[in-house]
Design goal:
Number of domains: 1
Order of helices and strands: HHHHHHHHHHHH
Oligomer: single chain
Strand content: under 5%
Helix content: over 70%
Shape: globular
């Protein structure tokens, strides 16, 4: 199973890398300095367990780097290379300790969910995307608070799950893959779910990273091809993220991030409030536009 996953991951890295390079050459896009620095910071702390989707979204909103409509796709495409680096590291480090069938099934479920979510986010109205991202940010902030206060589930010592819980985990990971297209990261919900099920929390990392990498590659391939991303930001996040992951895992490994989590909570909640306000405003405008349209009977008359 490990060889199969690593083979799929290798193919995903090659395929997505080729598509990204071709798109950059065709559009003469170059990575921005701010996006590169952002990619390094968020991917560094992502590898240490902070997460990257919520923090990246928050920075996008503060700096108005990317239109709200393109935030989920852009951050997914840009953070996928960093997740790929993490997946290789965590698969090699922990996969031998984890039930291979559970690992393979959950990773593939996230991948399939990611593919399912691509047309949903590209066709969704702007206010729907904004609302989904706002909810995701609030959930991420709740996870940060749980970690900072020690309420976060500590998990158990199991390396596998009973059949019923395993099926539930696979279906949940499919849902996490869909939500990732809307800017809701899969790391926090996956870690909480497996911890509550009694699994060793560290064994969730190969599932989280492997699923994020394959899902990100499949979804990002389509997002880049469709062109509904900010390619300069994507390139910057990728360029800064990959080396930052290796620095975090192999050089830093562990650091005191308790106070940083509280700072992230404040930042993420503010971004959630801004995004929710934009969603409410957009929904009202959409309703107002619908109310001003003539009825079909009036058009026929």
């Amino acid at each position: 199973m490990l060889i199969a996953l690593l083979t799929l991951l290798g193919l995903a890295i090659f395929a997505y890398g080729s598509v990204l390079i071709r798109a950059a050459i065709a559009k003469r896009a170059t990575p921005g300095l701010e996006a590169t620095a952002l990619g390094a910071v968020v991917s560094f702390f992502d590898a240490l367990g902070i997460g990257s989707f919520a923090t990246t979204t928050a920075w996008f909103k503060f700096r108005r780097m990317v239109p709200d409509r393109l935030i989920p796709q852009t951050l997914l495409c840009g953070l996928t290379p960093g997740a790929m680096a993490q997946s290789v590291i965590f698969l090699l480090a922990f996969s031998g300790q984890l039930d291979p069938i559970l690992l393979f099934s959950c990773v593939i479920a996230v991948f399939l969910g990611g593919l399912t979510g691509v047309p949903l986010v590209t066709r969704a109205r702007v206010w729907v995307v904004q609302s989904t991202v706002a909810i995701g940010l609030v959930l991420a902030a709740a996870a940060y608070v749980m970690q900072a206060t020690g309420v976060f589930p500590h998990g158990g010592a199991a390396n596998s799950l009973p059949f019923g819980l395993a099926i539930f985990a696979v279906l949940a990971n499919f849902g996490f893959g869909i939500l990732a297209n809307f800017g809701v990261g899969n790391y926090a919900p996956t870690l909480v779910m497996f911890s509550l099920m009694g699994m060793d929390p560290k064994l969730a990392f190969p599932i989280m990273a492997g699923g994020a990498a394959l899902m990100g590659a499949g979804s990002s391939f389509q997002h880049v091809r469709v062109g509904q991303v900010d390619l300069k930001v994507v390139l910057g996040l990728a360029l800064g993220g990959i080396p930052a992951v290796f620095v975090a895992v192999y050089l830093v490994k562990e650091m005191d991030i308790k106070y940083l989590r509280w700072l992230v909570v404040v930042v993420v909640l503010y971004a959630a409030a801004v995004m929710a306000h934009a969603a409410i405003k957009g929904r009202r405008e959409h309703k107002a536009e619908g109310a001003t349209l003539p009825l079909a009977s009036e058009l026929e008359a």
